[in-house]
Amino acid sequence: MKAIVQDEYGQPDVLRVEDLPTPVPGPDDVLIRVRAAGVDYGVWHTMTGLPLIARLGFGLRRPRNRVLGMDVAGVVEAVGAKVTDLRPGDEVYGAGAGTFAQFALARPAKLARKPAGLSFVQAAAVPASGVTALRAVRDVGRVAAGDRVLVIGAGGGVGSFAVQLAAGAGARVTGVCSTAKGDLVRSLGAQAVIDYTREPLAGTYDVIIDIAGNRPLSQLRGLLTDQGRLVLIGGEEGDRWFGGMLDRPLRAQLANPFTRQSLRMLLALVRTADLDALRELIESGAVRPAVGRTYPLAEAPTAVGDLAAGNAAGKLVITVD
């Protein structure tokens, strides 16, 4: 099978197409014929091995898993002996291992049936970004009708879902994005848009969802009501050792006992229950994937580079023949 592999950490030029044996499913595995795979910041972190603390999981000197990719949409090719709820021919979406390839393995607990009416490309845009947004809006942000919600990074993968989910809950949503992404964010349900390249953040909000941001915690808290909720998702700035994973989340956790505001860091894992919830929302028309651009498998390095450069409006998706 064709796959995108890397044997060292670095920038997109360390990625290449290689022929590999098709994975063999173990007793608890599902083998998926990949039709499309989403591109997210987890891919970038795996490729670069940054922040360095993450190499405890990725592999200290070189990547432990040579094939990139997590988000997947495709067709079940085979199942392990202990898998009872899926069978060959089922169309699924979710999270797997090494999904930038023609075939990939996944666990049933991270898969669900593909939403009816979605193409494989659209479905591949949902798992990691959609689940993260769902948990941010529903569980941590506890967004309710009438809330004023600020989504920072509203034009990206997670942000595009967060805007829709918050608006669908009856909130008044303000999206923060670049000039080029303003029309997309408005079309997803934002009632106001702040172009961060031209104007500062302003206003008062019940909920702030900050996606991969680096704004000071004090600035974000100043925009919250006295009992507002701040949800921090990721963080692409900081030093090589810890990146944005330590500073703001740690300070938020330390401040929590001394304020009526809720300051939380969110790290969401893809689960079948959340994928099922998203499928219901998608099939009802309440949510739609915002696919910015697609790339054939051989152009996966370009896709990851575009993501890192901030050129992604919506979610980038790799297509696999």
How would the blueprint of this fold be written?
Layout: E1 2-5, E2 16-19, E3 30-39, H1 41-48, H2 55-58, E4 71-79, E5 91-95, E6 103-106, E7 111-113, H3 120-124, H4 127-140, E8 148-152, H5 157-168, E9 172-177, H6 182-187, E10 192-195, E11 205-211, H7 217-222, E12 224-233, H8 247-255, E13 262-266, H9 272-284, E14 291-296, H10 300-308, E15 315-319
Parallel strand pairs: 8-9, 8-11, 9-10, 11-12, 12-13, 14-15
Antiparallel strand pairs: 1-2, 3-4, 3-6, 3-15, 4-5, 5-7
3D architecture notes:
The protein is an alpha/beta fold. The chain folds into two domains: about 1-125 and about 290-320, Alpha-Beta Complex (Quinone Oxidoreductase, Chain A, domain 1), CATH 3.90.180.10; about 130-265, NAD(P)-binding Rossmann-like Domain (Rossmann fold, 3-Layer(aba) Sandwich), CATH 3.40.50.720. The chain has ten helices and 15 strands. The strands form three sheets. Strands 3, 4, 5, 6, 7, 14 and 15 form a seven-stranded mixed beta sheet that branches. Strand 8, helix 5 and strand 9 (about 170-175) form a beta-alpha-beta unit. The longest helix is centred in the middle third of the chain and has 14 residues, at about 125-140. The protein is globular. It comes from Luedemannella flava. This is NAD(P)-dependent alcohol dehydrogenase.
What are the main properties of this structure?
YIM1/Zinc_Alcohol_DH_Fams, Quinone Oxidoreductase, Chain A, domain 1, 15 strands, 321 residues, 10 helices, single chain, Rossmann fold, alpha/beta, 2 domains, 6-stranded parallel sheet, globular, 7-stranded mixed sheet, NAD(P)-bd_dom_sf, 27% strand
